[in-house]
Design brief:
By secondary structure, the protein is of the alpha+beta class. The chain is built from 13 helices and twelve strands. Helix 6 packs antiparallel against helix 7 and helix 12 packs antiparallel against helix 13.
């Protein structure tokens, strides 16, 4: 540094020039001052650049084709990684010109390169998110349903891959021998495989679920003793919202092996009910009652007329049992099923009251034997 020129021109006093030329920890004070100014410049630029990039992103988001990739890309928060990448580049350029000691320059450049790599990985990660959003929109338009299962899984897989590869490439660029690290990991591969076998089984189970498609998100299913609506299919587990509103996570390895009862894909719902009549009911009334129940079912537009079956079929311990069996086609939700069956069952009650037929309930007749004679109590 030619401090004499600055002293001659009146920019610095002789004492100040001497202080700047003084060496501290093998680096002149003027370089320490320049380094501090460079760091301060970057820290001041960060919020300014975030503001500029934020406005630019919103403007670009408004101008892009609603059906294109960049519409989704600019809808994501990008200003922080953008601003950090630019500041990192400014710091790298400044460090190259400062010519600090080799060790100090090495560690500072290491930190800045790490900052640059992390934010580049974040940008790529969010680009994959934008691709996933684009394919979800395409899938919804085509009606394939893959947006709810395969696309989120593929996006998460790519994001994990980007993070892992980005980490390895960053280590390689920082001078770490990644090949030797991977070779070292191979020595403990058996132990790692044994420790991660459950995780691997769950990952393969999730792949099986996604490609075999025994159910999709939103389906009402039963797996073992668990029943509810599928909310998410992840790498490790499938999450099911139960009727009592709790959330149960079942490992995908178990889901892939268990019997899955998907109640959502039923083309029709069968209703099977037994109506018990009093033993005192005359046969004519039984005939009349079954005919009336059959008529009620045939009159309902939701009931498949070919599936209607009403018959007196069993002498029970305390009742004459009338079997009622019918199907409800095109009924996709449990709410609609319950609404229809409630209406029909109320009409069954009205029919019994109109015909003077009484429904049975559990009763017992007790015979007491006293002095050789039987009495009814």
């Amino acid at each position: 540094m030619q401090s004499s020129f600055l002293v001659t021109e009146g920019f610095l006093t002789a004492e100040m020039a001497h202080l700047l030329e003084t060496t501290w920890i093998a680096v002149p004070n003027w370089k320490w001052t320049a380094l501090a100014a460079l760091i301060a410049l970057g820290l001041v630029l960060l919020p300014v650049l975030r503001l500029i990039f934020g406005r630019f992103r919103r403007v670009m988001h408004g101008r892009q084709d609603p059906q294109g990739f960049f519409k989704y890309f600019f809808s994501l928060p990008l200003e922080r990684p953008w601003s950090r990448i630019l500041v990192a580049l400014i710091w790298l350029a400044g460090l190259d010109n400062l010519e600090l000691t080799p060790n100090l320059n090495k560690y500072l450049q290491l930190a800045v390169h790490l900052m640059l790599a992390i934010n580049l990985i974040i940008l790529v990660h969010r680009s994959i998110t934008a691709v996933g959003l684009l394919f979800e929109r395409i899938s919804r338009r085509t009606g394939t349903g893959l947006d709810q299962q395969l696309i989120p899984f593929a996006v998460r897989s790519l994001q994990v891959l980007v993070v892992v590869l980005g980490f390895l490439i960053t280590l390689q660029n920082l001078g770490v021998n990644v090949v030797s690290i991977l070779a070292g990991l191979g020595l403990g591969g058996l132990a790692l495989a044994l420790a991660a076998q459950d995780t691997a089984a769950n990952v393969f189970g999730s792949i099986t679920i996604l490609f075999d498609r025994p159910f999709k998100i939103g389906d009402s299913i039963r797996i073992g003793n668990t029943e509810g609506v599928v909310e998410a299919i992840g790498f490790r587990s499938t999450r099911i919202r139960t009727p009592y509103n709790s959330l149960i996570s079942i490992p995908n390895s178990i889901v892939a092996k268990e019997q899955v009862d998907n109640m959502e894909v039923r083309p029709r719902r069968r209703i099977r009910q037994t109506l018990g009549l009093l033993y005192e009911t005359p046969p004519a009334k039984v005939h009349e009652f079954t005919a009336r129940i059959r008529q009620i079912l045939l009159e309902n537009k939701h009931v498949d007329p070919k599936s209607v079956l009403v018959a007196f079929n069993h002498f029970n311990a305390a009742s004459l049992d009338v079997l009622v069996n019918f199907h409800l086609p095109e009924v996709r939700t449990q709410e609609l099923e319950l609404e229809i069956t409630q209406d029909l069952f109320c009409r069954f009650l009205e029919a019994a009251a109109t015909l003077g037929v009484e429904y049975a309930y559990p009763t017992q007749t007790v015979y007491l034997k006293r002095d050789g004679s039987a009495t009814i109590a």
